[in-house]
Amino acid sequence: MRTAVGIVLVAALAATAPGARAATTQIGAVDEVVAATAPSAITQGGFAAQIGEAEGTYAVPAGFDRVTAWSHSAGSVPGTLTFKVLRPTGAPQEFLVVGSDTRTVSARSVQTFPVSIPVRPGDRLGLSSEEVALAFETFVPADRIGFFGADPPLGTTARTDGEPFGEFKLDVAATLASDPGPPGATDPGPPDESGPPAYPSPPVVSRLRVVPRRVRAGGRPPSVVLRADVAGRVRFALRRLPNKGRARPRGRFARRVSAGPNRFRLKRTRALAPGTYRLEATPVASGLTGRTVRARFRIKRR
Asked: Quick check: helix, strand or coil at residue 30?
């Protein structure tokens, strides 16, 4: 199914290539989407903006003023996915949401959705979803994604949290046109400064535990238990602890959490070798990043 849809998408892109009646171009992960490349499962769910890229561009170039379609190459999990157009405000990592389009995507397929969203040169692409995988892992540090603590609605201004994540590209491609679009289309105008206030203090995660603290290699995954003072996202880092020296990273992921107690299975332990590990949890909410908390656990031989 991926191959067939990929061929259809290539034909659609060719029909709107530069030289047609209306000048058009494509930005974003065009090659990956056309090839029906599957996104990385570790990027499942989040609210993200492409901050930088090593090749190509996720930014609207000069001479184009409208997004006419966007495409996504879905992974194994279907769900609701929102395409975002984000306008840099000039402040570090701050964006105004000037375009938004929400669709339901099917698993393991490339889908293209027609839209009519006014844009300006420099506007950048973003994606938001609670369940769909969002990005390709490129292993190129210059490919950087910034995550918002909460999904910023259309017309609001928000900043991404902390340092951008390197080595990832958002799984989205957009078709741009230079025509004025349908009658009545208007520019979203200046930033709306009347959005909800940020939390007065950074979010807090406490009582982080891995239960049980000793598990067998390849066996039933342990549970992660924590308490959050507000609803938001928690970014996790998994590190193996050596006998001496620095801890070595073994993976990163993020999850939505509700205010109060939270519990989920740490399925990533199935692929880990015996040893001592540390799970690090950093909460983010409403543009604020909280203190990182840590919990140790051990994987035993079978």
From this structure: helix
170 and 210 assigned to the same domain? no
The structural domain count of the chain equals 2
pLDDT tens track for 157-194: 999 988 888 999 999 999 999 854 444 444 444 444 44
Per-residue HEC secondary structure of 163-229 comes to CCEECEEECCEEEEECCCCCCCCCCCCCCCCCCCCCCCCCCCEEEEEEECCEEECCCCCCEEEEEEC
Query: CA 226, CA 266: separation in Å to the nearest integer?
Result: 13
Q: Is residue 187 part of a domain?
A: no
Does 200 fall in a domain? Answer: no
Domain that holds residue 222: 205-300
Task: Judge if 26 and 111 occupy the same domain.
Answer: yes
> pLDDT tens-digit profile of 185-214?
444 444 444 444 433 578 899 999 999 999
Interacting residues of 261 by C-beta distance below 8 A, sequence separation 6+: 225, 226, 227
**Which DSSP letter does residue 107 get?**
T
Within-domain flag for 193:
no
Indicate which CATH number applies to the domain containing 272: 2.60.40.2550
pTM score, whole prediction: 0.56
> What does 125-178 look like in DSSP terms, one character per residue?
EEEEEEEEE-EEE---TT-EEEE-SS-PPTT-EEE--SSPEESEEES-EEEEE-
